[in-house]
Amino acid sequence: MNEHTIIDLLKKGKIGVMPTDTIYGIIGSALNPLTVEEIYALRKRDTSKPMIILISSLDDLSDFDIVLSSEQRDFLKKVWPNPISVILPCPAERFFYLHRGKKSLAFRMPDNKLLLRILQQVGPLVAPSANLEKEKPAETINEAKKYFRKKIPFFVNGGKLKSKPSTMIRLYEDGKQIVLREGSFKVN
C-alpha cells in the first residue's frame, strides 16, 4: 500500500497496522474520538489506560493545549526523534477520551522516516502495540493479521520487528525527569 493511500485512509478516520520505531502499532487519528474508541474496542484494551500519541514536531503538542517550559523544550529537542515516550500534563476535559481522567498524556516523536512523513500529513496518531490486551505484541504483519484480519482496513509490512518498548518518562516543568519504564532508549 502506498503512502498517499495510507494518508487518505487515516484522514478519513480509518485505522491500520504499521511499523513504528519500536514494534508494530495500530495507528489512528488521535484527534478523532471515534477512531480512538474503535482502537480500544479492537484491542480489548483497558479503557482506563491512556495510549501513547505519536507526533511529528514539538508544535503538535499545541493541538493538545500543551505549552512547554523552556527546560522541557530543550530536553525534548535533545532526545527526539527516538523511542522515548514523554508524559506531560494535559488537564483539558475535551481530551478526556485520550487521557481517561489521568489528566496527562504520553507523546513520542518516532525515529521512523515514513511514519514521520505520515504524521506531518495526518497529524498526531495513537499507536498502541498491535495485539489484544495481555497478548504478545505482533512481531510480523502475519501475527498482526491473526489478531485483526478482517477488522482493520490496511496493514503495512515492515518485516520482523522485535524491540524493547519505548522508554517512558514523566517530564516536569523544571526539566526534571523520572524514568517510569526502561526501554530501548537510555536517558542520561
Q: What is this structure, in a nutshell?
A:
The protein contains six helices and nine strands, in the order H-E-E-H-E-H-E-H-E-H-E-H-E-E-E.
**Oligomeric state of the chains in view:** single chain
Structural class: alpha/beta
Judging by the overall fold, what is the CATH architecture? Alpha-Beta Complex
The top level CATH class name: Alpha Beta
The rounded distance between the terminal residues' Cα atoms is: 39 Å
Tell me the Rg in angstroms.
15 Å
Order of helices and strands: HEEHEHEHEHEHEEE
- The fourth-level CATH homologous superfamily is DHBP synthase
Give the number of domains. Answer: 1
- Morphology call: globular
The average pLDDT value, as a whole number, equals 94
Per DSSP E runs of 2 or more residues, the count of β-strands stands at 9
Strand content: 15-25%
Q: What helical percentage do the residues reach? A: 25-40%
Unreliable residue stretches: none
Number of H- or I-type helical stretches: 6
Lateral strand order in the biggest sheet: 7-1-2-6-3-5-4-8-9
How would a textbook summarize the main sheet?
9 strands, mixed
Query: Would you tell me which CATH topology applies?
Result: DHBP synthase
Secondary-structure blueprint:
Blueprint lengths: L2 H9 L4 E4 L4 E6 L3 H11 L9 E2 L15 H10 L4 E6 L6 H4 L4 E5 L4 H10 L2 E2 L14 H8 L5 E2 L11 E5 L5 E5 L7
Parallel strand pairs: 1-7, 3-5, 4-8
Antiparallel strand pairs: 1-2, 2-6, 3-6, 4-5, 8-9
Provide structural commentary:
The chain is of the alpha/beta class. The chain has one domain: DHBP synthase, CATH 3.90.870.10. It is built from 6 helices and 9 strands. Helix 1 packs parallel to helix 5. The longest helix is centred in the N-terminal third of the chain and has 11 residues. It starts with a helix and ends in a 7-residue tail after the last strand. The mean pLDDT is 94.
